[in-house]
Amino acid sequence: MPNLRAWLELAPTKSGSVVPPNYRKLTDAVRLAAGLEEWPSNALRRSYASYHLARFQDAAALALEMGHSTTAILFAHYREVVTPDAAKD
Predict the structure, then answer these.
(1) For residue range 17-50, what is the model confidence (pLDDT) as tens digits?
(2) pLDDT at 63 exceeding the cut of 90
(3) Is the full-model pTM beyond 0.85?
(4) Domain ranges of the chain
(5) At 68, phi and psi to the nearest 5?
(6) What Å distances lie between residue 40 and 3, 12, 21, 65, 66, CA to CA?
(7) Burial of 80 (0-12, 13-18, 19+ CB in 10 A)
(8) Which of 73, 81, 75 is nearest to 54 (CA)?
């Protein structure tokens, strides 16, 4: 995706992991600073799927991108969680 490429261009190195070694410690600190007691499992993946489906309305392409063999999981868990208006750029 073009926006992913733009974010990756900001990485200090052009190869290797884009996740810092202390990722968990950093995200825990941010979560606590935001007053969030818990962080649901796969929260970022789930948010991505919900917003992407609402924005682009292409379940087949999203299922392929996420590694799902069908769109059933998308429709069961991510459809209509986010409105198209909320997913606009």
Answers:
(1) 888 889 999 989 999 999 998 888 888 899 999 9
(2) yes
(3) no
(4) 41-89
(5) -85, 145
(6) 25, 29, 21, 22, 18
(7) exposed
(8) 81
